[in-house]
Write a structure and sequence with these properties.
109 residues; alpha/beta; two-stranded antiparallel ribbon; 1 helix; 9 strands; 7(1) septoil knot domain-containing protein; Septknot; signal
Length: 109
């Protein structure tokens, strides 16, 4: 009986680990986060943002290239004060997504 309980516990741990690994990023393969397409005009706000973002150097969810015009591909962001497509708040803890600024090849990891 004890071996059976240990075996069940080990299987549950492996299942939880694999589910965590599969849900490692909140961004889907098409570049959407909760229905927000991660390209376009972005406004930085202090509170009540659509997305909380942490800037990292390794293991980002999204590679971001800052552009001055035509932010029409996933990962291309144009920072604006008005007329935004979505808002972001930069945080150090509990981000929704993690980004890395790049000069080329923006998009989903």
């Amino acid at each position: 009986m004890k071996k059976y309980a240990v075996m069940i516990l080990c299987q549950l741990c492996m299942l939880m680990y694999s589910a965590t690994a599969m849900a490692a990023t909140a961004i889907n393969a098409d570049g959407y986060y909760k229905g927000i397409k991660l390209c376009g005009k972005v406004k930085v706000v202090e509170h009540f943002a659509d997305i909380k973002v942490k800037v990292v150097e390794s293991f980002p969810d999204l590679r971001v290239k800052v552009v001055n015009a035509f932010p029409d591909a996933i990962g291309k962001w144009q920072f604006v004060e008005h007329g935004e497509d979505f808002t972001v708040q930069f945080v150090e803890s509990f981000p929704d997504i993690k980004i890395k600024y790049v000069e080329s090849f923006p998009g989903v990891e």
